[in-house]
Fold this sequence. Notes:
- The protein has twelve helices and ten strands.
- It has three domains: about 5-50, no CATH class; about 70-80 and about 95-250, 2-Layer Sandwich (Nucleotidyltransferase, domain 5); about 265-315, no CATH class.
- It has helices spanning about 5-15, 25-30, 40-50, 55-65, 120-125, 130-140, 150-165, 180-185, 195-200, 210-220, 225-245, 310-315; strands at about 70-75, 80, 95-100, 100-110, 115-120, 145-150, 175-180, 275-285, 285-295, 300-305.
- About 25% of the residues are buried.
- It is an alpha+beta fold.
- Strand 4 and strand 5 form a beta hairpin.
- The strands form three sheets. The chain has a five-stranded mixed β-sheet with strand order 5-4-1-6-7, with helices on both faces.
- The protein starts with a helix and ends in a 6-residue tail after the last helix.
Amino acid sequence: MKESIFLDCLNTKKKSGGIKPFWGALFKKYASEGYRDKEHLRCEFKNERKRRGMLGNHELEVMDNGPRVGICDIETLPGIGYFWGLWDQNIGLEQIVSDPCLLGWAGKYLNEVKMFSDILTPKEAISRDSKRITKSIWDFLNSCDVVVGHNFDGFDNKIINSAFLLYDLPPLKFTVVDTLKIARQNFRFLSNKLKFINQKLGIKQKVENDGFSLWKECSEGNSIALKTMLDYNIGDIFSTEELFYKIRPYVRNFNVALYNEITDPQCPVCGSKNLKTEGWYYTPAGKWESVRCANCQCISRKKKNQLDKDKKKSLLINSK
């Protein structure tokens, strides 16, 4: 399915709330693309969502009533200073001309099409005035319950919080799902860079750029370079989103079910109720029912310890 058709189906479905009959209108619009009827188009759309690891209709509804998950990435201007060499330099504070600052950002909500972004104007870039875009990224992140990013904890979040502090904006309360941390904790790639991992997994690649010269031109207020940088930044959002879907079964630090009132068991990371029991999960303290999500393949466990009182009392704990 073409990307433009897929996005149109997805966006129309979001607008209709998944209730109003719109497949007939979409079929008329795209009949020339080889679809036999509206059911054929609907089936292809469903298969494409499955291929991308996106949620089914029911699970998407759960997510809409659950956490607002945002994908976010930032770009920064490099610092400027005086130095005498390239290796093992100890640059003193008096040698700094300008320290790094926020250059731009991009973000979108999971399962939604609309992209949010902002970047310094040429005048702001020259003066390194990031106050305006700091407020715009604060507004976006303030709307998120969960934020997904690659190295977001180690880099983006610290730069963002520094800017918040500088411009007197209060801290935010979102949970971070860092795809770099997940990659380091669970896998062993030769490199954990977003570009390398996505290339290995055969999913959406990062947008290429001209290297440091692009950052230099942005620092000098080149309007074309700033536009190119924003496109590059937006490209990282799509790459990060696809990586998140790919490694989603390994996410452990947030639970979709906490954000809604549904009392049936749900997959912690995608909200699906399509679960199946898969043996037992053992810890030093007990025995737990293990559950597999049929939608995203995440493995989780129920909270009730299946050991009775006598068995619990009989357990011994290693002293070392």
